[in-house]
Amino acid sequence: MALPAARTRSTPNTHLVSLAAGDLLMVLLTVPFISIVYTVSSYPFGETVCRASEFVKDLSLGITVFTLTALSADRYMAIVRPVSHHVSDTAGRVTIIVAVGIWVFSAILALPAALFSHVPDKFTPTGEKYHICTPFPPFLGDLYPKIHTLVKFIVYYLLPLVLIATFYVLMARHLLVSAQHLPGEAAGQQRQVQARRKVAKMVLAFVTIFAICFLPINIFIMWWHFGENSSMNYNIYWHSFRIVGFCLSFINSCINPIALYFVSGTFRKYFNRHVFCWCTRRRRGRRRDWDPTDSTATRLSTAPRTEHVHLRMVGGADNGTHDAPHRLTLTSTTSLLSSRNYNNPGSVV
Predict the structure, then answer these.
(1) Which is it for strands 326-333 and 304-311: parallel, antiparallel or unpaired?
(2) What is the pTM assigned to this prediction?
(3) Which end of the chain is flanked by fewer CB atoms within 10 Å, N or C?
(4) Do 120 and 132 meet the contact criterion of CB atoms below 8 Å apart?
(5) Which CATH architecture has domain 5-282?
(6) Domain limits of the chain?
(7) Cα angle: 92, vertex 76, 249; to 5 degrees
(8) In whole angstroms, what is the distance from residue 277 CA to residue 170 CA?
């Protein structure tokens, strides 16, 4: 059973599909190549894989951050200005344009990673050569890594969280004010407000998970590039902190569907129906609910039926010879009851 078009093509669902696509890119094209760095002593892939991996990492990060910001802005408009937000006929097209614009803008911001990432030769204190994948080329100088890190921290983390927090503060203020007038409103309006609150809580859960997952890695990167003698003070503590930060940033791409499952009742319902179908089918078999669309339901067949009846003349002479019988054709419509066998035949009515 497919979701109704009006429900699947809503603004939150469009952004959630875009968010899922960005997370899928991260899981498939970035996590396998970056995670292997912590298991081998030298980067085993070439420059092409290095550039592609760094590009997809920044692309996915931009899609996640900007989509969450767009979702927060949409929830703000849906709660504070519901009429102007939903009445417009161009709302669906605007949502598609915003989603595509997020992908294009994220790709533009990720271009430096695709252009400048390389695999330089490095040497240990004992003279052994190894390779790393880095987005900072030497010809751009020592200032470029600091500028690049600071810009990414502001654009990908600090500024979106400030905007999202502002949207939610304004939403909370509006809900507190409107709650005083809510009991006197119609029941339909109350259900709409409750539905919008549920979606707002879902977006807030995503934003909270993002803020927690990306905080450690941003702390490490800022310390590494702006801390005094960070390379000299790098020890097992910072190394472990760095690994935890990378793992949490990658977990963010995997935990969103899990959070959506527990937060959204609609997503949980259709996820159980289409993914855990064996479990729901088993539960459905225990119930005895009558469904007029089910194959076990009663069906009426109105197919025409033609019968040929042989007639003889009444009162005709019976001299051993039979006249040719007259043929009468009857066309009738009958109701046929068809059903599968039930444990209790008397239950079929």
Answers:
(1) antiparallel
(2) 0.69
(3) C
(4) yes
(5) Up-down Bundle (1.20)
(6) 5-282
(7) 90
(8) 41
Q: Count of residues for the chain?
A: 349
Q: State the Cα–Cα distance between residues 346 and 230, nearest whole angstrom.
A: 81
Identity of the amino acid at 126: T
8 Å CB contact between 68 and 210:
yes
Candidates 338, 336, 335; CA nearest to 295 is 338
